[in-house]
């Protein structure tokens, strides 16, 4: 846009490629599947709490690891 408006001879943004969104919609868990995961008996309660938070709120993996 800057190059087009200012009529520059060289456009430094010409090589920049804009990534398009993924063509497929994400395959998310249904509420039933989330409830089955959360209801799984385990001694690892901390991991189950983390998984439940992850499934319901949807942070990226790196954000989840930063919070743990």
Structural notes for this entry:
This protein has 68 residues and is mainly alpha-helical. 49% of the residues lie in helices and 0% in strands. It has four helices and no strands. The chain has helices spanning 2-6, 31-38, 45-57, 61-67.
Write the layout of secondary structure elements.
Layout lengths: L1 H5 L24 H8 L6 H13 L3 H7 L1
What structural class should be given to the helix and strand makeup?
mainly alpha
The tally of strands reads 0
Shape: elongated
* Order of helix and strand elements from N to C terminus: HHHH
Number of helices: 4
User: Strand percentage, roughly?
Assistant: under 5%
How many angstroms separate the termini?
42 Å
Poorly predicted runs are: none
Rg, nearest Å = 22 Å
Q: Average pLDDT value?
A: 84
Main sheet characteristics: none
Helix content bin: 40-55%
Produce a short descriptive summary.
This protein is mostly helical and 68 residues long.
Which short descriptors sum up this protein?
49% helix, 0% strand, elongated, 68 residues
């Amino acid at each position: 846009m800057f190059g087009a408006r200012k009529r520059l001879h060289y456009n430094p943004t010409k090589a920049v490629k804009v990534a398009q969104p993924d063509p497929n919609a994400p395959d998310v868990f249904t509420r039933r599947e989330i409830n089955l995961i959360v209801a799984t008996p385990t001694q690892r309660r901390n991991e189950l709490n983390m998984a439940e938070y992850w499934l319901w709120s949807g942070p990226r993996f790196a954000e989840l690891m930063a919070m743990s």
